[in-house]
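New to this. Comment on this protein:
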Amino acid sequence: MPRLLIVSPHFPPVNTPDMQRVRMSLPYFVDAGWEVVVLTVDDRQPLAPVEPDLLATVPRPVRVVRTGAFSRNWSRYLGMNNLGLRTLPHLYLRGRQLLKKEAFDLVYFSTTQFIVCVLGRVWHMEFDTPYVIDLQDPWLSDYYQQPGAPPPPGGWKYHFSHALAKHLERWTLRQCAHVVSVSGHYLLALRQRYRWFHEDSGSVLTFGAPDEDFAVAREKRTTAPALLPATASIKIAYAGRLGPDMRPALDVLFAAIARFKDAPRPFELFFFGTSYAPAGQGAASTTDLAARHGISHLVHEKTARIGYIDSLRIMLETDLALLLGSEDRAYSPSKVYPTLLASRPTLAVAPANSVLEAKIQELGGAALITFAPGAGGAADAAQNLSALLAGFAGNPGRPLGAPPQLAVLEQQYSAAAIARRQLEVFNRLIARSRTTPPPLPVAEYWPTLPPLQP
């Protein structure tokens, strides 16, 4: 039986985006006959929301090992709230104990706390255990160095983190057995940056659609109070980050919504969990833009993070689900797949040639409005969006865009499909191991993918 050690500092009941790939893959790893140990952090002061419902989605055979972290009561005086920095020595020691006492075929880092990935090379030097790194975001990002980009947030902390990433990424990836990434742009950047990083050094694995989680969300919806108010307006809802890279898409949306502000049944916008800042400390992303378009009374934003299951419930409750594209052409929005699975009328607003545009063109299931750079492109897009919204207002609830390609979603983007592709990577890497018999081909123990439950 192959043995896998997963390092994920965030893990249920704490809810963060960077642990969702691991959480959704675990049932399929177990079904495939893998013995899995998750090394995570027992953070008694989490910045992210705590969501006990997620614990029920972790298979019982998975052993979860929790280690400590330095308290924020003193680390905050050093300006150090980052969980990766606070837990690094604890993770190192606990991981070292596990690798010394037990034989693991592979170590898998799936996190955006990139500083902990250096432990892969440290442990590899001592135990010769291969390691894989999952890049859900770029470790070393050049977004704020691009022409026209806004100034980076965080002041000296950003410049320190950027300099640290520049050195640690190179050192860590040099001995990494394989890199999986949600975006091919990230792998291309690595190939351009390092001569020794080749095309076969990494694989593109997008986020998976949460096919099993919607059953939990639908059940909770029958017992919990509604998250959206019972108003006469047509509700458009969005749950997730709203960064400056999404502001152009937001501007197009608000310009179109403003044309209906005096309608008998206007459109009303609800944004949830738009900031990664601790509850009560996040800055609203929509206030000034809504005021400029004269629709402040129609725009409601809650910056505090919400539970993952609640974010799915919002998609089920809304009249019109919303997807926003990013100016960062490499950004791969994970919420595309759950939004399409919710089977609600969906609107996508994205820059031309963005990842979101490509995904909607491939998968359907949403009306797509794209815009070119510049004021002219945004004005044309707002005009097109206004026409689309006028048609929807006359017949709320009708599907928008091309029908969703559920077969493609099932075969390529479901949680089961993404887990299967991870296992194919893992199997290739451990095939030469001296301590483990050659693994069976994936098709032998998992011949067909389970069907999606839309």
